[in-house]
Write a structure and sequence with these properties.
The N terminus is likely disordered. The chain contains 20 helices and 17 strands. The chain is globular, with a radius of gyration of 26 Å. The two termini are about 50 Å apart. It has three domains: about 80 residues, no CATH class; about 210 residues, Alpha-Beta Horseshoe (Leucine-rich repeat, LRR (right-handed beta-alpha superhelix)), CATH 3.80.10; about 200 residues, Leucine-rich repeat, LRR (right-handed beta-alpha superhelix) (Alpha-Beta Horseshoe). It is of the alpha/beta class and about 525 residues long. Helices cover about 30% and strands about 15% of the residues. Helix 1 crosses helix 3, helix 13 runs parallel beside helix 14 and helix 14 runs parallel beside helix 15. A hairpin with a 5-residue loop joins strand 15 and strand 16. This is F-box protein. It comes from Wickerhamomyces ciferrii (strain ATCC 14091 / BCRC 22168 / CBS 111 / JCM 3599 / NBRC 0793 / NRRL Y-1031 F-60-10) (Yeast). InterPro entries: LRR_dom_sf (IPR032675).
Amino acid sequence: MDDSFRHFTINNNHDDNENNSKEIQFPAEILLKILTFQFYQLLLNNTSSNSFNIQYFIKSNLTVNKVFYRCVIKIIYKYCSFKTPHTFDIFLNSLLKNPKLGEYVQVLDFQEFTSIGLGRTGKMNKEIQMVTSTTILNCLLKTPNLIEFLASENIKDDLNSDLLYHLFNNMKYLKSIDFCGCSGEMFVSNFDQLIIKKPANYNITDLSLHDCTDLTPSILEKLIVNLPNLKKLDLTHTQITSTILNLIPHTAKLTHLSLSYCIQLTTRELINFFINHPAITCNKLVWLNLQCDSSTSSPLNNNQLTFLLKILDCDFVYLNLGGLDVSFENLMLIKRKFVNLKSLSIANNSIEIEQLIEFLKPPEDEKTINSNFYQRLEFLDLSNNRFMNRWSLDNPQFLNCCPSLIAFEFSIKTINDIDSMGGKFITRNENHEEIIWKTYDSLGRRGWLFKVDQERNPDNLSQIGLVEYDINTGRKLFKILKQPDFLKNVNKKISVSKGILFNAHEVFGDFERGIYKYYGMKM
């Protein structure tokens, strides 16, 4: 802060006598801490849009005085998200007028961005010059301290080769890049022209190519071999091959890896990768997604999956085996071996309820219980299990067999059947305490049954979206409502962002929004 703005002064004048005038001075650093805390509290309201929460924060603080103004600007420019071309244009103009603001920017977030609507045609959208490859590149040139660049399919044609070159070669603090959903002929052509300078880029650790279906194997190879410090790598639904996968630099230490729906992977090379590649054998992997389409041939049969689970010496927290042939013996192996596992997906498998209860229940021997060294699963995906339906859930042993479990995922038909009969179950645990399980769905695509907990999973779903007013003043009431906490466990997309508050969960990442949420919540 400039010296002229280093103190915030409060005058308490009780009368006109100067001797009764008191001044209380706050260093700007302390005020910045206070406002940051307020900002944090407002952003906990993750049931409304971030732009609404930020606007509320700005209206409350920006015009108090010059010190407040400086502190607020520093806070809100740290994470910049855009919903429309107009908001990006306003942001870029502010950087052009005051280049100092660009030094505060650490994240450019386009995951909620769209130019569709308002009666515009495709031709009209192309003529809008607010968000183009030129303006985005100009923005990158004005934000030298950028850490995260979160693109989306709505700007895919504006990511030209010059912009990509600048991202991969000239942004010395950039750590995370997300191209979720980007595809198309122009996008591929721009990546084909990309040149990554030697030596390779050692800054970028997190790369998401989730659903970048059109990127060719040669482009994927060019990216992977030039990022030697990779930690998070999302290759969901891409053209990655086993050969290219084994070209990941040996200096990489992968913590997150998604290979779901990668149909060009072959069984032998895939197993060889998990057994021998240093990026895996360093045993840093905590998040793994191997989901596949159960209606087609699986890359791993049950024997190969059993072998893989036995040789992997990773401390998994998230494991998605949806579509693979998972047996009861595999579940018991997972229970014994991966004691820190919190989220497990075994969708499209038909394991009987009695076997699931045996898998979920805590150990019976007192020595193991006292050691606290046993699995405490929080989320289990059982969608498309033919033994799971509305009536099988009446078994009280099933819902209460695992005290740590806070949510199940079932097929949307099962969730709709529960909704038609009240939308909840009320059970009692061994201490005769009442436990309420309620349904939650993502607009008909996926559905969950979660345990109501006022701290982590509050029963406030009926209040979300309601607008309330003070009966005396008529002013709108601003209520902070949180989404159920279990939703962080169900995301099938790797989150490469630290979040708007830079406090995202180390393994599960931030609550994603916009098009990222759509892809993360897909079946």
